[in-house]
């Protein structure tokens, strides 16, 4: 009887040790990772306010006028642009993105913030998010056409 009790207490001790090790490890990971994720989200929002909000407004509705000039609503057309390679290229190749004084990494966070917070707002946003590599590649592309003309063409093609 004594041998069985000793064997089970050793197993329990091992389980308690593994459990406490797992808790400590996961706590440390949360301690290190969570602030970085929160910092990226906070700085992306701040960079959106500083670099984009002047034209796109805080809510992403833009400042479009009746004649089609100005900045159209990202809420109305964002998903359309994000759904095709040409639209994705347009979305991150406009002068405000290309010329912003942000690194590609910072701009990736800003664009993904826009997608998650303003355009899609749910778990369905994941396939639309940009990787750093994709954004860097598109951002190096200078738009050949007039931004307003290309935007209008993309919208017309997407609506048909």
Features:
71% helix, 160 residues, mainly alpha, elongated, single chain
Describe this structure in words.
- With 160 residues, the chain is mostly helical.
- It has a domain at 54-159.
- Helix content is 71%, strand content 0%.
- It has eight helices and no strands.
- The model is unreliable at 22-37 (pLDDT under 50).
Which residue ranges are poorly predicted, with pLDDT under 50 across at least 5 consecutive positions? 22-37
Distance between the termini: 80 Å
Write down the secondary-structure element order: HHHHHHHH
Radius of gyration: 24 Å
Mean pLDDT: 76
How many H/I helices? Answer: 8
How many β strands by DSSP?
0
Q: How helix-rich are the residues, as a percent range?
A: over 70%
How do the helices and strands line up, and which of them pair or pack?
Layout: H1 2-51, H2 53-56, H3 74-82, H4 85-93, H5 95-98, H6 104-119, H7 132-139, H8 147-159
Write a compact overview of the structure shown.
The chain has helices at 2-51, 53-56, 74-82, 85-93, 95-98, 104-119, 132-139, 147-159.
